[in-house]
Amino acid sequence: MIKIGIPRALLYYQYYPMWRTFFEELGMEVVVSSPTTQAMLSQGSSRVVADTCLPAKIFLGHVLSLVDECDYIFIPAIRSVKRKVYNCSKFLGLPDMTKVVIPESPPILDIDIDVNKGKRDLYQAIYRLGRHFTWSPFKVRQASIAAWQAHLDYRQLMSDQGLTPPQAIETISGRLETRSSSPASTQTTIAIIGHPYLLYDEHITHRLIYRLEQAHNKVLTPEMLTAEELQSATARLAGGAYWTYEEEVVGAGEHYLESGVDGIIGIMTFGCGPDSVMMDMVHRQAARLKSTPFMSLTLEEHTAEAGMVTRLEAFHDMIQRRKRRRAEVCA
Amino acid sequence: MRVGMPHMGNLYIPFQALFQRLDIDYVMPPVNNQRTLSLGVRHSPEGLCIPFKLTLGNLIEAAELGADTLLMPGGTGICRLGCYAQTQEQILHDLGYNVEIVKVGVSQRKLFGILDIIKRLSNNAPWAKIISAFRFGLAKLNALDRIEKVVQKVRPVERVKGTANKLFAKAVKAIDQADDHNTLKKVEKDYIDQLKQVARDPQVKPLIVGITGEFYVVLEPFSNLDVESELGKLGVEVRRMTFVSEWTKFSLFLNPLGVNEKDRIHKAAFPYLKRDIGGDGWESVGEKVLHAGEYDGLVHLAPFTCMPEIVAQNIMPKTKESIPVLTILCDEQIAKPGMLTRLEAFVDLLERKRRVPNNNR
Predict the structure, then answer these.
(1) Which of the four, A158, B278, B344, B355, has the lowest number of CB atoms within 10 Å?
(2) Which contacts of A154-161 are long-range, i.e. CB under 8 A and separated by 24 or more positions?
(3) Distance from CA of A181 to the nearest CA of B (A)
């Protein structure tokens, strides 16, 4: 059976169930790279110039780990998924950049997703992708309908049950062990905002979510909000999205700032073009409202675990102190 | 209403002409200087690129001079630049300046969008007046760029280093002061003649180096530490395809008619980069491939953290068409001695390569 490799990085967290369904419907086997390791990161960064952003370096590390494991690697170039809203250049150049910096990689399956060009172009692009494996347009059509359904189910699962993407993916694959339900004594709610490829990559964040939960916090993430909530919050703060994945930063940030959580942590990586603008927008709004503590963590490959833990602890202590003082004032 | 705008190279001259002809109340912030940069850096998010920081510095300085309507390019696209106007407006408001930023759309409606904005700024001046003023602005822009092209050729071969630059500075001033088409033509002809008569060293056969990269840092000498004149002083003839007049000619007038000057560049880049990645990334890769046989070397200018140029930078060294490329990242930390050392080493390498042509690999 032909094996299709999917790197566990970048857009994996948003679209994996869709991609897997598409390829499996066409009779392929899907191989996913294992979770990020330090070795992957170093191998990935050795191929590109130093300024390349951390998620892209990690992505290349995942591709390198898949080189001998599969017959094709799937790397889409997602240009836009909404009208007049575009994606970062790195996502667009991803298939070409990978091909050039990893010449030993198996053939790359790329597909241009651009809804601004109209439906016809989109359907043709999907057909071109499917044609690698079947001549029948009918089969491709069926596979894409099933894939779209899988995507909708996946989103529904996350917003209904409050799951994070990795949890939802495991639930779908039926591999979820009983969730260690967070301790009953949680009184503090902390929202974290940022792109899923940062929040759920435990190597990048040094297990941030786990640490927060260990400290008896309830953790909220952008995926736990509905699309409407995200959209209206983005419109309030930015007057409409400029970037494809703006809602998970600006929308979630604005929503949580006004929904009365105890604290918000923004996660971004050094040198991220879109995030440098978006996180600043949330930061300014937090400073204007002066109601919710906001901390922005900028991560890169040199981020030391100890340094991050210290900042987390300080933030956590500050929130606790603030809560205590408020309780005293009320009493 | 008092209008202000950011700087990019000599672009302020055509705009000044336009404003004057339409009797628009305007202020021109001082040309980019250390204070502009410090102001911009102090109030910008750290991860943003040098074009954002410098233009923010300009806008703050314009607001200090009393401007309340600021022009800034904007629109949808893939480069961050499209959303800068909005962020900068927020920053200016947070600083307490009561200003409005007018987004000059460079991606939609092209010429008509720009004419509409001029109409609004000029308090509904008659169209005939607007079009004549716009044409005069364009004429100044074209004259400046035609003179600059001659300057690029004279710099490496002049006997007394710096003559061409001095003449160019004078020409810029004279063009700024010209107030009708005839004077403008006379000034242009006069300076081009003077440049052609500059004493040259007939022995020098200059190396040819192309300049490519991100639009703003290529065109704003303050942000790239005047890399063009420095290369000229080292005896290198600079070629670049990016000129504002070219951009206006194609983007405003010819592209809507279906002429695309960049097709050739995109075709050259195609084996390595198949799609537009925003900004000028596709063009950078294409120019390297296209000019590999023609130029001796290429200087690639990019702002630090520029997304499209990083992709281009990763792809450029791996093309089959080989030509030495020096990538210079421009940000507020860049220092002249460091850059000069790199330029000298690069030029030495190119000279050696020319002396021993069979020895390159």
Answers:
(1) B355
(2) A154/A17, A154/A18, A155/A227, A158/A223, A158/A224, A159/A223, A159/A224, A159/A225, A159/A226, A159/A227
(3) 38
DSSP states along B75-118: -SSSSGGGGHHHHHHHHHHHTT---EEEEEESSSSHHHHHHHHH
What is the nearest CA distance from B314 to chain A, expressed in angstroms? 6
Q: Do A96 and B87 touch (CB under 8 A)?
A: no
pTM for the full predicted model: 0.91
Neighbouring C-beta atoms of residue A285, cutoff 10 Å = 20
Considering only CB atoms, A280 lies closest to which of B87, B315, B318, namely B87
Contacts of A321-327 spanning 24+ positions with Cβ under 8 A: A322/A262, A322/A293, A323/A187, A323/A188, A323/A262
Test A101 with B313 for CB contact under 8 angstroms. Answer: no
CA B207 vs CA B14, B301, B347: distances in Å: 32, 19, 8
Q: Cα dist. B308→A32, B113, B193, B218 in Å?
A: 28, 26, 40, 15
Produce one character per residue of B273-285: b if its CB has 16 or more CB atoms within 10 Å, e if not. bbbbbbbbbbbbb
The per-residue pLDDT string of chain B (361 residues; one tens digit each, 9 = 90 and over) reads: 899 999 999 999 999 999 999 999 999 999 999 999 999 999 999 889 999 999 999 999 999 999 999 999 887 766 888 889 989 999 999 999 999 999 887 666 678 888 888 998 888 889 999 999 999 999 999 999 999 999 999 999 999 999 999 999 999 999 999 989 999 999 999 999 999 999 998 888 899 999 999 999 999 999 999 999 999 999 999 999 889 888 888 888 887 777 787 888 999 999 999 988 888 899 999 999 999 989 999 999 999 999 999 999 999 988 988 899 999 999 999 899 999 999 999 999 999 998 887 655 4
Q: In this predicted complex, what is the ipTM?
A: 0.89
Q: Which residues of A fall within a CB distance of 8 Å from B47?
A: 268, 270-273, 275-276, 298
Q: What residue type is assigned to position A248 of the chain? A: E
The closest alpha carbon to B262, from B279, A170, A310, A149, belongs to B279
Residues of B in contact with A125 (CB under 8 A): none
The nearest alpha carbon in chain B to A243 belongs to B78
At A274 the three-state DSSP class reads helix
Question: Measured between CA atoms, how close is A128 to chain B, in angstroms?
Answer: 16
Q: Do B277 and A85 touch (CB under 8 A)?
A: no
